[in-house]
Structure formats: C-alpha cells, structure tokens
Amino acid sequence: MTHSFWTIVEFENDFAACFQEMIKLTQLRGKLKVLVTYDYPYKDNPGTKNDWVEIARRNWRSIIRDAHSHLPEPGVEYLLAIGQLSNTESKGSNPDMTWYFTSLSTSLSEGFKDTEVKISSNQ
Questions:
Q1: pLDDT (tens digit, 9 = 90+) per residue, 5-37?
Q2: Domain count, the chain
Q3: Is the pTM value of this prediction over 0.90?
Q4: At 112, which helix (H) or strand (E)?
Q5: Which residues pair with 24 in a beta bridge?
C-alpha cells in the first residue's frame, strides 16, 4: 500500500545533518516537500557561511535529480528554506536573519524548473 501526502515538512536545526532530511523527503510521496534548516554564524570562520548555503543548494538539486531519475515523481514541488543569522554580537538580541529559498519543480515533459530567492530582514 502506497501512502501519499499533499505536504511534507521537515525541520532540521543541525545544518550539517540536513542532507539526511533531503534524502528522506525524496523517499516519501507528496505534492509539496519542504525542508527548513538554519545556518548559524561560526566565530572561527565567519567568511564561509554563504558557501554552506550554496553547498546545500547544490546537494539539494543533486539528491532530487538522482531520486527522480530512479523513481520519477512528476508534478512535485520541492522547497528548501535556509535561515541564516547574522553575527549576533554586532546586533545584540536582535540579529538580522536572511532566508534563502530554493524551489525545484519536477515535470516529465519540461524537466526541472529551478528558482532561487533571498529575503533579508535588514532590507
């Protein structure tokens, strides 16, 4: 018996573990699959935080395309939402938050439609 859902949402607080949730979402059947995760600033190496967003986006696309090649699931919308806090020391208790959204739609006839959006709280 196959179960199917309209919307599946996964939250992962550990950015380094979000790839496991990406794989899990490709194994479940649904029309909208959402992963929300957070990338916190690192004091040791603050210049690399945007690299992590790009790595996550690249892996997200790769995991979905690979899963789709083995078990096509047309008409599905994937949404990756990454919240990234600014350096909290400079803003005190009210840090800036930037959200990075990546949407990937699957279609057998048109292939993949890929969209990226960035929204910052300081804009």
A1: 889 999 988 877 888 999 999 999 899 999 999
A2: 1
A3: no
A4: strand 111-120
A5: none
